[in-house]
Design goal:
elongated; binds adenosine monophosphate
């Protein structure tokens, strides 16, 4: 295919900001792209020459581009740089330069997509002595044969500045329209800015098939090729390949334990929700290990330690596992928040030093491919059992995620406290009989980070009400326990109680309980012996200088009296601090 054809599409795409119009332009274009050209066209359309999971980069900075343009046009670097300052965009500068040049010396070799693509890839592969010269030549060669408008896009692609607004959603839709449009009656109406679809359900079936194929391959070219050659069946047969990342399954968020159970069913697996970063680990039959982040960046080089654990501690010739790597303090072994290790992800040098200073523990929670087989459709419970068999746990290196199968709210609460106390963010709920759904935020995995987590607090004071509440103690000063066993105030709660007895816990009842505990009274304020423990809900924990604990509750509400708890079993300040830290991350 001639490069000018692709450039024409770029131009069309640049002329509109509307997503549907962009989709239409690409889908029309794709119908004419041959299977052989597909990979190059698809990548270049997204402004790249490697798939997003491929760590290779073109690696050309503006300086080198200036030099290459100078070589190609015979115009001095200084002059080009001046133009650049004026225009602010090297792509536009290249276009203008080539335009003046072309009038003088008419050049006529036609650039092909393949030639552009090949030269750009070579740029990424060059290493060692003479690299700068070789790169300059490769770029200059393209610019010399390019039409003015082509040179603009060549320069922008090389510098990673395409910005034509073609995202993954647009690509997915365009492939669906291009290859299944006739089956689903998709019709784009420019006037209405909409698409007409005769049958949404049928449309979604094709759309989902395209999305799924993309989720497991992460290559639109492969998806488009399969759709073009073998239709729906072809998409269904696309399998995952070890070494190529698949989109990770995402979690839904809920606020209450009830909601979590409703979504994943009972019994459910609950796991610690670690505050690290996701690592998808691959091992192929030759023993090669690759690691990818949640955004599918290849971080194999950055984590030689993790490569070692995956190689040594997981049995199996080939597999793909899903895990969370968590940083911990070298001295104490305690988990550290994500920020502490995030710097390792992009690191290019001193990697071993970083690994030693910022060690991570890998917490494995899923396996989606094993011994040559895709097992995403195997139930979670069985995948977990397989994991338990193949992982040799070594604390502070690689372990299984801490997990429990439960049906009871109380068990969840207990486990939640354990999780928070161990420095985690909260819990994950997993549906026992669900598949692994790449790229999807479906209800198979739920995150539960706290919010509605209640506190058990001690009433240390109260205030007489006003108006019709004047006869009751209607606002309660509540406290938690500090490290020395002292009650430190954390707020005042006055909602949640009822004015009428028959409606539930009433002000009258509470007043009766508190009056005998009075230590002193001053105006409306009453100090009370710390005896009564109440369960308190709230919207958020905030830092506050007003109360001795250093914290305050936003919208506190009394839920019930915890008659089963003595004051020294109240929530601790340490726990409040941990909840505060965990909520900051959500
Ligand atoms: P969030 O990033 O808040 O959407 O929460 C989902 C993320 O929690 C996942 O992408 C994982 O990186 C992380 N995570 C931590 N522990 C687990 C676990 N046990 N199971 C699944 N994901 C986990």
């Amino acid at each position: 295919m001639e490069y000018s054809k692709l450039v024409d599409i770029y131009e069309q795409l640049n002329r509109t900001t509307k997503r549907l119009e962009k989709t239409h332009i690409i889908s029309d274009f794709l119908k004419d792209v041959s299977v052989d050209d597909m990979e190059q066209v698809m990548l270049l359309l997204e402004g790249r020459v490697f798939p997003n999971y491929d760590a290779r980069e073109i690696g050309v900075a503006s300086r080198l581009m200036l030099k290459s343009l100078s070589v190609a046009t015979g115009i001095s670097v200084d002059k080009i740089e001046n133009e650049w300052k004026k225009q602010g965009d090297l792509g536009l500068v290249a276009e203008a330069l080539v335009k003046t040049k072309k009038q003088a010396t008419l050049h006529s070799t036609k650039l092909t997509v393949k030639k552009v693509f090949d030269n750009l890839r070579k740029l990424a592969e060059l290493e060692g002595e003479g690299t700068v010269e070789r790169k300059t030549q490769l770029i200059a060669e393209l610019i010399t044969s390019a039409k003015p408008i082509e040179s603009k896009y060549i320069v922008k692609t090389i510098l990673g500045e395409m910005r034509i607004g073609v995202g993954e959603g647009t690509m997915r839709d365009a492939i669906t329209w291009a290859f299944f449009g006739n089956k689903i009656g998709v019709e784009y109406t420019r006037e209405m800015n909409d698409i007409k679809v005769e049958d949404r359900a049928v449309y979604n079936k094709y759309l989902d098939a395209v999305q799924h194929a993309y989720d497991v391959t992460n290559e639109f070219a492969e998806v488009a090729r399969a759709a073009k050659l073998k239709g729906l069946e072809g998409l269904g047969n696309i399998g995952m390949k070890v070494g190529i990342p698949i989109q990770v399954m995402l979690a839904l968020k809920v606020d209450t334990i009830e909601e979590a159970f409703e979504t994943v069913g009972k019994p459910a697996a609950i796991e610690f929700k670690y505050d690290g970063f996701r690592i998808q680990g691959h091992k192929d039959e030759k023993g090669n290990i690759k690691l990818f982040t949640r955004r599918l960046e290849d971080v194999t080089k950055q984590f030689p330690d993790v490569v070692g654990f995956v190689k040594k501690n997981i049995k199996g010739k080939s597999f793909i596992i899903d895990s969370e790597a968590v940083g911990y303090a070298k001295k104490t072994g305690k988990y550290l928040p994500f920020q502490n290790i995030s710097q390792r992800i992009k690191r290019k040098y001193d990697i071993d030093k970083m690994a030693s200073n910022f060690p991570v523990e890998v917490n494995v929670f899923d396996v989606i491919y094993f011994e040559g087989k895709n097992i995403i459709n195997v139930e979670f419970e069985k995948r977990r059992r397989l994991l338990e068999k193949i992982i040799k746990q070594e604390p502070k290196k690689i372990v299984l995620s801490k997990s429990k199968v439960v049906s009871d709210k109380k068990d969840v609460e207990k486990f939640f406290k354990e999780a928070i106390n161990a420095g985690n963010e909260g819990l994950m709920f997993k549906s026992l009989n669900s598949p692994y759904k790449p790229g999807a935020r479906v209800g198979y995995m739920i995150k539960f980070k706290h919010m509605m987590e209640t506190l058990d607090l001690v009433i240390v004071g109260a205030e007489w009400g006003e108006g019709k509440r004047a006869k009751w103690l209607s606002s309660y000063t509540i406290a938690c326990l500090n490290e020395d066993g002292k009650f430190v105030e954390i707020g005042k709660a006055s909602t949640g109680l009822k004015e009428k007895r028959e409606e539930g816990l009433s002000f009258e009842e509470m007043t009766k309980l508190l009056k005998p505990l009075t230590i002193s009274e001053k105006g409306k304020e009453v100090k009370a012996k710390p005896k009564i423990v109440i369960e308190v809900g709230y919207d958020e924990i905030q830092k506050s200088p007003t109360y001795e604990s250093g914290f305050a509750l936003r919208f506190p509400r009394v839920i019930q009296i915890r008659a089963d708890k003595g004051p020294h079993e109240a929530s601790t300040l340490d726990y409040v601090k941990k909840l505060y830290a965990s909520q900051k991350k959500s």
